[in-house]
Amino acid sequence: MRPPGARASANGSAPEGARSVTVLGPALTGFATSLSLILAIGAQNAFVLRQGLLGCHVFALCLFCALSDAVLIAAGVAGFGAVTGALPWLPQALSLGGAAFLIVYGALRARAAWRGGHRLTAEGQAGGVWAVVGTAAALTWLNPHVYLDTLGLIGAVSTEFDPGAAREAFALGAVLASFCFFFALGYGARVLAPAMARPVAWRVLDALIAAVMWAIAARLILGT
Length: 224
Hints:
- This protein is mainly α.
- About 75% of the residues lie in helices and about 0% in strands.
């Protein structure tokens, strides 16, 4: 006799209650895996934090970053991690391209830190939405680490689960973590707005961002 709520389907598949428990585990694993990888401070996160402090096109930026992660996570879970095996030159090309962009962007932030004078006002919010999204696109898609994290690591972890509902739940959990993180970072940054009202705070932030960009660029170049 089956317990209440454990009704099997007509085709003899697992009970509904058991199925929900089965997909919950993979979803939580996907959420935790994705969040642990994305929490590391990097070029993309630093840019989202800065735009969040400015209140400049935050929704579009967070949505773009989260959707980009969703595409990459879906590709990784679907098995596209084998692409790097088929194209052995791709990791080095991505590393060099990403390093070049990070060096230039870091230089721009270093110049802003040197000049100072930036305030959390409308004058600091210059730049259209496409310019902001374009910068985010470069920071996202030219970063070889994002491919390692999504196509490689998340894709590899997903193989622990059987194809079908369990693996799809893992992917959805990983995507949800990305959405939660970017929107929390972008909009949560406004909590720091009072402290960032002083120009000196912006000089410190820009200097730190430049240091992060150059450190990542150096690691990419030395690793090629």
